[in-house]
């Protein structure tokens, strides 16, 4: 939340807008979209695993989707770090995204 990281007071939302959804194999897809974070918008590619349509115990139709990908936080201007006494730095540049989504048919 602090200015060293997300500067949440200044950048109040993180936004993702899908631009394409492509089938790779049965149940496997690629989702590409624009991620806006820290006031910067960049294209990202996510692997998507489609879990299929299902009915819950109340008869509602739902769909499950799992997304995975990686981004470099410095591409969005998130540059803070701290050197360690043992060498290296405290915070990795690579951020792994693991997203589980469930949609309800209206």
Automatic annotation (TrEMBL):
InterPro entries reported for this sequence: Lipid/polyisoprenoid-bd_YceI (IPR007372), TTHA0802/YceI-like_sf (IPR036761)
| Pfam families for the chain | YceI
**Residue ranges occupied by any Lipid/polyisoprenoid-binding YceI-like domain in the UniProt entry:** 1-104
* PANTHER family named among the record's database cross-references: PROTEIN YCEI
Q: What is the protein named?
A: YceI-like domain-containing protein
């Amino acid at each position: 939340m602090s200015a060293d990281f997300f500067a949440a007071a200044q950048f109040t939302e993180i936004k993702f807008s899908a631009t394409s959804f492509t089938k790779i194999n049965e149940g496997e897809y690629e989702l590409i979209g624009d991620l806006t974070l820290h006031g910067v918008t960049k294209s990202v590619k996510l692997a998507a695993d489609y879990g299929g349509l299902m009915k819950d115990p109340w008869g509602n139709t739902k769909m499950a989707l799992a997304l995975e990908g990686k981004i470099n936080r410095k591409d969005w201007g998130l540059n803070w770090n701290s050197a360690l006494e043992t060498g290296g730095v405290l915070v990795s540049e690579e951020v792994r995204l693991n997203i589980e989504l469930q949609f309800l048919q209206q």
